[in-house]
Amino acid sequence: MDRTIERVADGFAFPEGPCFDAQGDLYVTQLASGWIARVRGGVVEQYVHTGEAPNGAVFSEDNLLWIAEAGTHQLLRYDGVELAEIAGECEGQPLRRPNDLVFAPDGSIYMTGPGGSIAPSRWASSTTPSAMARSRWRPAGCASPTASR
User: Fold this and answer.
1) Domain 15-132, CATH number (from 3.90.780.10, 2.120.10.30, 2.40.50.140, 3.40.50.2000)
2) Once rounded to an integer, what is the mean pLDDT over residues 87-115?
3) Going by C-beta distance under 8 Å and a sequence separation of 6 or more, which residues neighbour residue 92?
4) Predicted pLDDT of residue 122
5) Distant-in-sequence, close-in-space partners of 68: CB < 8 Å, separation ≥ 6
């Protein structure tokens, strides 16, 4: 099978967490700069600055950008205007280096926390912790049975 790799953009500061919005634009977290970049028509623009080190991102069904901010140890949500902290701790323990996140078919969000925290493995869309996991594993990736945008 012959495959061709095409470069769509470059110049990122430690790119991570690529995702697409409802319009098909590509977003890339930049772990080293604190920015999330948007790639539209081959043009890269700085979209939102999250604080320190955004590591993962995903869009929800309502086209809000959810961000795993590893540097400030937060789960963030960006609506195109306001950046909001959704969570920074779980059961009194701080999140440590949240990494990747994904939405499940029921709208729950799952995220990894490879920094060794007692991190939530699932939040309901209402942001109320609905299930918790404690583990010695340090997961660093997520997948969903349905394609995330």
Assistant:
1) 2.120.10.30
2) 83
3) none
4) 43
5) 17, 54, 55, 56, 57, 75, 98, 99, 100, 101, 111, 112
